[in-house]
């Protein structure tokens, strides 16, 4: 492999992972934009999305799906879209429920009180994921090691799309990430810009009191924000499981920190910022893996997070007229 | 307000009661020898010192520190490097603990200086990130820290004429209890000192504090350093207890959250509360859950491999529920501080 090919390969990894991170980051940034809460539990909602996905895949009968002879069948794409929608709705609903039960009563409490409550929710969800991983299902390893990582089956064909003799590998998995994330991001942008509820969101983000006075049902707007943020997190969890072929009950912590870093890098509250930030963090991770060392990658990401917070807390795109959701 | 009149005091009644209660723990062992309270009770004390440090930052100054375990780790490793026989220093237990505390204060100052101007929730995330960085760095810098093996063996405490070993854990417990009493004494007098009152002022209203000629940044920095120093001392004491720093993963986010749970459950800002919180939360963790596991296993329930029957698997849930419920119903903790009555 030449230097350029190595670099190109890392760009592909970085972009694929970055798009997934961007989806999760959107959940952080939208919620922060509306209620000024760092939704610490978002990463763990994402984890539960991964567990639901694996449960569905397992329930559908592992044999039929994992059989390599069937790979490339169009039914796999159908399954993939169904999983994205299923996990999305589940995570969205869960996010709304958490908001109702825990965050809503604390809406007027000091910010740190809300953050500590969110951390508490995060721990509860981690424990639920641990229990889920101990479920007596074949895909979970029969419930013997609840805390162990679970293998996630290949759902898409592993053929190199750039030709078998190319050193740079681009797989259907990489492409599928773009096929799913980009339309989601476009739909989200159109929704926020063009619909009534989207306008309500922008108004609430700017000034909740004024928005309420203008007759906007801010409770509904907040619920919708948690729903959409959770949906994107759920969709991301499907892509993440598919791409990394493994899930664990603690995966939400790292994924969540990556995504939060991305949201802050792009300017928290800014939707385009979260998308750009996600891709950047994906690329930074890939380059750090290749050119520094894998074991230092998390240090690099947290270093980036701390430096941005200190020197440019408004992020890359979060300057003056920031377009919060 | 009775702050000024209590300028110098040994202990309050509540603190005395809790410390005295702790002192009675080994007596339980005499009555029920199978329980073995004294050995794990030393861990309660280690965590209590760490939580008292966190209490200075979170409870008194109102800054959320989510990475206190990082300072505990730095204290443990500083103690390890200063005392372990494979390094040239070998300063012994007492100097090791003191220098670890000083190093912790320095580390706290180093992290605090550039970050304390940040908004509260951003500061929380920075401290969280710092905690993760310290963990990874300790893991990766194998040449100095021995990576995941940890530094060992480490010395037990030394006192003229007294031996400390695993056989004499009751004696060891009382030594640590004495150290805890010294820390409580220091904290209590810090609380009512000029600096302590500055911290309260900054927590209640930064602008008003500034108008009273208090420099919030300096006060916060001192709180950060003091908290980090106590956390580092607790790290050194814990490492001596294990005779090893343990692996860096022993000082992860979960530990920081356990310390936060202690402070919040016990009552933010109250020393007595933090002591009670330590007994409740750490006691649950190192005494009650293992005891429950043993009992269940003896009755043939815990060994079935079912995730739900192992009490250890409920830890996250307990921490999480404790935080959520406390924030929802008693944001000031079980022991309400003067904060509530002062208003």
Task: Name the descriptors.
heterodimer, A: 325 residues, mainly alpha, two-stranded antiparallel ribbon, globular, disordered C terminus, B: 343 residues, ABC transporter involved in vitamin B12 uptake, BtuC, 14 helices
Provide a descriptive summary of the structure in words.
The complex is a heterodimer of chains A (325) and B (343). The model of chain A is unreliable at 320-325 (pLDDT under 50). A two-stranded antiparallel sheet of chain A has the order 1-2. Chain A has helices spanning 3-35, 42-59, 62-66, 74-103, 111-133, 172-194, 196-206, 208-213, 218-244, 251-266, 271-292, 297-311, and strands spanning 150-151, 246-247. Helices cover 70% and strands 1% of the residues of chain A. In chain B, helix 2 (38-60) packs antiparallel against helix 12. Chain B has a single domain (4-276), classed as Orthogonal Bundle (ABC transporter involved in vitamin B12 uptake, BtuC). Chain B is 69% helix and 0% strand. Chain B is mainly alpha-helical. The longest helix of chain B has 28 residues, at 271-298. Chain B contains 14 helices and no strands. The interface between A and B is large, with 45 and 45 residues.
Largest sheet of chain B: none
- Note the beta-strand portion of chain A: under 5%
Quick check: average pLDDT of chain A? 88
What's the CATH first level of chain B?
Answer: Mainly Alpha
- Termini gap of chain A: 44 Å
Order of helices and strands of chain B: HHHHHHHHHHHHHH
Radius of gyration of chain A: 20 Å
Given helix and strand content, the structural type of chain B is: mainly alpha
The rounded distance between the terminal residues' Cα atoms of chain B is 10 Å
Beta-strand percentage range of chain B: under 5%
Spatial sequence of strands, sheet with the most strands of chain A: 1-2
Total of domains of chain B: 1
Low-confidence stretches of chain A: 320-325
């Amino acid at each position: 492999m030449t230097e350029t090919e190595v670099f190109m390969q890392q760009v592909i990894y970085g972009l694929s992972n970055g798009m997934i991170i961007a989806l999760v980051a959107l959940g952080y940034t939208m919620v922060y934009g509306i209620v000024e809460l760092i939704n610490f539990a978002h990463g763990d909602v994402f984890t539960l999305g991964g567990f639901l996905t694996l449960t569905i895949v397992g329930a559908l009968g592992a044999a039929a799906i994992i059989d390599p002879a069937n790979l490339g069948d169009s039914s796999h794409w159908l399954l993939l879209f169904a999983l994205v929608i299923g996990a999305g709705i589940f995570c969205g609903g869960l996010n709304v429920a958490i908001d109702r039960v825990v965050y809503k009563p604390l809406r007027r409490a000091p910010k740190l009180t809300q953050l500590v409550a969110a951390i508490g929710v995060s721990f509860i969800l981690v424990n639920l994921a641990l229990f889920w991983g101990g479920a007596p299902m074949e895909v979970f390893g029969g419930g013997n090691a609840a805390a162990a990582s679970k293998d996630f089956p290949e759902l898409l064909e592993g053929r190199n799309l750039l030709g078998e003799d190319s050193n740079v590998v681009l797989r259907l998995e990489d492409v599928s990430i773009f096929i799913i994330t980009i339309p989601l991001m476009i739909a989200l942008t159109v929704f926020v810009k063009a619909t009534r509820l989207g306008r309500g969101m922008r108004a609430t983000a700017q000034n909740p009191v004024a928005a309420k006075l203008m007759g906007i049902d801010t409770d509904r707007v907040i619920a919708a924000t948690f729903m959409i943020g959770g949906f994107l997190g759920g969709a991301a969890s499907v892509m993440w499981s598919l791409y990394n072929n493994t899930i664990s009950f603690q995966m939400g912590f790292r994924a969540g920190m990556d995504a939060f870093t991305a949201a802050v890098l792009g300017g928290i509250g800014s939707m385009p910022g979260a998308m750009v930030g996600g891709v950047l963090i994906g690329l930074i991770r890939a380059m750090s893996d290749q050119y520094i060392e894998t074991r230092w990658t998390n240090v690099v990401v947290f270093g980036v997070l701390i430096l941005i917070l200190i020197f440019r807390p408004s992020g890359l795109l979060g300057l003056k007229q920031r377009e919060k959701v | 307000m009775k702050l000024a009149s209590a300028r110098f005091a040994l202990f309050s009644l509540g603190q005395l009661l809790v410390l005295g209660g702790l002192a009675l723990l080994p007596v339980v062992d005499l009555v029920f020898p199978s329980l073995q309270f004294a050995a794990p009770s030393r861990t309660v004390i280690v965590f209590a010192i760490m939580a008292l440090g966190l209490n200075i930052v979170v409870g008194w100054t109102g800054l959320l520190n989510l990475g206190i375990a990082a300072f505990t780790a730095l204290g443990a490793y500083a103690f390890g490097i200063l005392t372990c026989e494979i390094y040239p220093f070998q300063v012994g237990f007492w100097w090791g603990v003191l220098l670890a505390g000083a190093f912790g204060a320095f580390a706290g100052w180093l992290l605090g200086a550039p970050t304390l101007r940040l908004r509260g929730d951003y500061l929380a995330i920075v401290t969280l990130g710092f905690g993760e960085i310290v963990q990874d760095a300790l893991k990766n810098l194998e040449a100095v820290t021995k990576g995941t093996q940890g530094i060992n063996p480490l010395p037990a405490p030394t006192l003229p004429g007294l031996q400390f070993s695993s056989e004499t854990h009751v004696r060891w417990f009382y030594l640590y209890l004495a150290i805890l009493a010294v820390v409580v004494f220091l904290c209590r007098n810090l609380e009512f000192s000029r600096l302590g009152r500055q911290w309260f002022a900054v927590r209640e209203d930064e602008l008003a504090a500034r108008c009273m000629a208090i420099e919030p940044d300096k006060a916060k920095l001192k709180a950060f350093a003091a908290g980090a120093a106590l956390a580092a001392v607790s790290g050194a004491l814990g490492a001596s207890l294990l005779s090893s720093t343990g692996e860096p993963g022993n000082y992860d986010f979960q530990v920081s959250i356990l310390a936060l749970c202690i402070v919040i459950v016990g009552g933010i800002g109250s020393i007595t509360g933090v002591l009670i919180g330590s007994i409740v939360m750490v006691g649950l963790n190192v005494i009650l859950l293992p005891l429950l596991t043993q009992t269940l296993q003896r009755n043939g329930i815990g060994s079935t491999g079912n995730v739900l029957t192992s009490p250890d698997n409920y830890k996250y849930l307990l921490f999480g529920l404790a935080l959520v419920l406390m924030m929802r119903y008693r944001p000031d903790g079980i022991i309400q501080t003067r904060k509530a009555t002062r208003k």
